[in-house]
């Protein structure tokens, strides 16, 4: 039915190198962008922006960061939240140390600081592999949380380490309203996704995948393991750092170090398991799933089970459903929602024929 | 000097409690190659079941047996519903499946027995005992003794029985074990159930110390550095690792903590484990992996 490729040939090398080679794909992307930038800010309401769209975008970005490290470079990490925290607190502190620092620049600076911390905790990965590497990332997780809680310098003297976002001014415009925060988040998240989508197609991305599949073999064919692994840690932490800044500045506004605890790391890990390891699109799907599932569950239980289920049980039920879904996905569809989407597209291409 | 000895001994005894949790990991890792993140939730589940039964008026031994049976049931279900479908998958997938499993077990435990803190009294007074001029906790000594007994029983099981022989064969080479007629799946159930037993003992000791509550499942995070230092495949390593972590953690908290404004016990074991790993990437007693292309 949808024989999209027919008649579309590359006549130049540049066309062969495109990320989206079919005009239908490019048109769909432009339509999506138009929807996200042109339509949603006008028709969405505050609840949609604050409770669904902004966390969805920020978590997609965090998932992207971890996916580059775990899904593409094969380095298991349970410290994503720590790098998010570093990004958030670095952006915040730099705003104070350098008054007048543009907001977007402070996001980037926060990401750079997170990247440096990421490289430090990624250094052991050269000698330690597999599960043993979990220790390094967990050390990062606990050490950063402790550091930010214990030393008030990072939060400008707040005893419990709480930071509050400065006014969100970009080039003189105030992006403080829900729709404004949504637009700001979107315009930070999308370029990073474009960057990452192209990065994994580059030679660096191929090196990552070679290291993931077997690092000894990768070393034998001449891939510089040291540089490849550390770049994975640096770029992944940079993206996580920016995601952390956005989480603190545009989503929550006020955040404490315990907001970036181990369960946040798990949340990011679940995004990439459910969405699909080693997939760019999967981050969006996984994040949408993670953001929407609790909302859908509470609506469902509110209408179906009201009175039957005690209030405290909802959380337990959510936990069980989450765990079961993770196991089910790992058994049935290890490549996650992204693979399901691909499978659906492959079938839609042939519909109504079967082969 | 005697203060130093007291801190050291106290740390060593606390370390035994860490080892208890770590042993559960080692058992499962050896037999099925699964890094079982759900061990902490299994500890919680076992302890919660035991305490709730005790509170409903069941005698001690009956609660213990029922808790043990529930762990066996858990192992059976797990093998049938999860492990069987994940044969031959990469270890990272199995690890993430146990992450999901830990969510399910925690959710079920709390849905069944509630989320409030249960006190647990094992009938041992926690009065200090003076031994050769050193003050030691009576409870810690008891915990160490039960850990020692458990390890003795486990090593008897592993070294002197037919089941132990099969388990060692499975740990050595799953394919060869299958070829000589060992039923792999039955062995998995068995080893998960034994890990459940270890979890139950650990849960009772920890629960008597901290109260049986949700945070019990977080001791998995304490056991991880222990495991790393000792190596994933050695029960002896788990004990030594536990002692090292326990002692150094207490010493660091007492001597280093004040310099760093305290609260360092959360991350110190990890940094310690990291240092050990940089010297020996497979832990103290772990099997060194030979890499082939």
Descriptive account of the structure:
The complex is a heterodimer of chains A (355) and B (293). Chain A is mostly helical and 355 residues long. Chain A has one domain (45-350): ABC transporter involved in vitamin B12 uptake, BtuC. Chain A is 70% helix and 2% strand. Chain A has 14 helices and four strands. Chain A has helices at residues 13-16, 23-43, 46-72, 80-97, 103-122, 132-150, 178-199, 203-213, 215-220, 225-252, 262-275, 281-304, 313-332, 336-350; strands at 163-164, 169-170, 173-174, 254-255. Chain A has a two-stranded antiparallel sheet. In chain A, strands 2-3 form a two-stranded antiparallel ribbon. In chain A, helix 8 crosses helix 10. Chain B has one domain (2-214). Chain B is built from eleven helices and two strands, in the order ααααββααααααα. A two-stranded antiparallel ribbon of chain B has the order 1-2. In chain B, strand 1 (128-131) and strand 2 form a beta hairpin. The longest helix of chain B has 31 residues, at 2-32. Classes of the chains: A mainly alpha (355), B mainly alpha (293). Chains A and B meet through helix 6, helix 9, helix 11 and helix 13 of A and helix 4, helix 9 and helix 11 of B.
């Amino acid at each position: 039915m949808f024989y999209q490729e027919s008649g579309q040939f590359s006549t130049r090398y540049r066309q062969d190198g495109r990320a989206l080679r079919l005009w239908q794909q490019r048109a769909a992307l432009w339509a999506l962008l138009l929807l996200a930038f042109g339509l949603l800010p006008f028709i969405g309401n505050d609840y949609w922006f604050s409770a669904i769209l902004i966390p969805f975008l920020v978590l997609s970005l965090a998932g992207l960061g971890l996916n580059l490290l775990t899904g593409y470079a094969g380095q298991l990490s349970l410290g994503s939240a720590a790098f998010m925290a570093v990004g958030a607190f670095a952006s915040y502190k730099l705003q104070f140390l350098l008054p007048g620092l543009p907001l977007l620049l402070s996001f980037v600076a926060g990401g750079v600081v997170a990247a440096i911390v990421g490289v430090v905790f990624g250094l052991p990965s050269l000698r330690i592999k597999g599960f043993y590497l979990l220790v390094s990332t967990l050390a990062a997780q606990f050490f950063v949380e402790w550091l930010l809680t214990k030393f008030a310098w990072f939060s400008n003297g707040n005893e419990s380490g709480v930071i509050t976002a400065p006014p969100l001014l970009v080039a003189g415009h105030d992006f403080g309203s829900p729709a404004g925060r949504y637009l700001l988040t979107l315009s930070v998240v999308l370029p990073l996704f474009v960057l990452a989508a192209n990065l994994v197609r580059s030679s660096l991305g191929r090196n990552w995948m070679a290291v993931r599949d077997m690092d000894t073999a990768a070393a034998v064919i001449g891939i510089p393991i040291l540089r490849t692994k550390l770049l994975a840690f640096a770029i992944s932490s940079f993206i996580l750092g920016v995601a952390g800044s956005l989480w603190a500045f545009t989503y929550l506004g006020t955040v404490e170090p315990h907001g970036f605890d181990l369960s946040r790391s798990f949340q990011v890990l679940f995004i990439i398991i459910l969405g699909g390891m080693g997939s760019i699109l999967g981050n969006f799907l996984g994040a949408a799933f993670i953001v929407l599932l609790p909302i859908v569950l509470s609506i469902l239980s509110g209408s179906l089970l009201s009175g039957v289920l005690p209030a405290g049980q909802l959380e337990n039920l959510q936990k069980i459903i989450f765990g079961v879904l993770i196991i089910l996905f790992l058994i049935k569809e290890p490549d996650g929602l992204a693979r399901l989407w691909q499978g659906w597209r492959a079938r839609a291409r042939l519909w109504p024929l079967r082969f | 000097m005697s203060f130093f000895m007291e801190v050291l001994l106290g740390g060593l005894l606390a370390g035994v409690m860490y080892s208890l949790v770590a042993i559960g990991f080692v058992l499962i890792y050896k037999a099925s190659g699964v890094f079982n993140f759900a061990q902490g939730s299994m500890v919680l589940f076992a302890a919660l079941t035991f305490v709730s039964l005790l509170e409903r008026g069941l005698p001690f031994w009956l609660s213990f047996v029922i808790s043990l049976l529930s762990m066996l049931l858990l192992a059976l279900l797990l093998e049938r519903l999860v492990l069987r479908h994940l044969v031959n998958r990469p270890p990272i997938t199995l690890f993430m499946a146990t992450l999901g499993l830990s969510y399910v077990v925690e959710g079920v435990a709390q849905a069944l027995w509630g989320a409030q803190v249960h006190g647990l009294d094992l009938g041992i007074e926690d009065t200090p005992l003076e031994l050769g001029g050193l003050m030691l906790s009576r409870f810690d000594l008891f915990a160490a003794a039960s850990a020692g007994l458990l390890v003795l029983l486990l090593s008897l099981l592993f070294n002197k029985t037919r089941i132990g022989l099969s388990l060692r064969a499975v740990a050595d080479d799953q394919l060869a074990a299958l070829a000589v007629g060992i039923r792999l799946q039955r062995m998995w159930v068995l080893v998960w159930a034994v890990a459940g037993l270890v979890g139950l003992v650990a849960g009772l000791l920890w629960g008597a110390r901290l109260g049986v509550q949700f945070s019990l499942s977080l001791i998995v995070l304490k056991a991880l550095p222990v495991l790393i230092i000792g190596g994933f495949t050695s029960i002896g390593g788990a004990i030594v690792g536990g002692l090292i972590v326990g002692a150094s953690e207490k010493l660091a908290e007492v001597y280093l903590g004040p310099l760093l404004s305290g609260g360092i016990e959360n991350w110190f074991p990890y940094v310690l484990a990291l240092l050990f790993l940089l010297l020996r990437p497979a832990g103290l007693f772990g099997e060194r992996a030979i890499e082939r292309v």
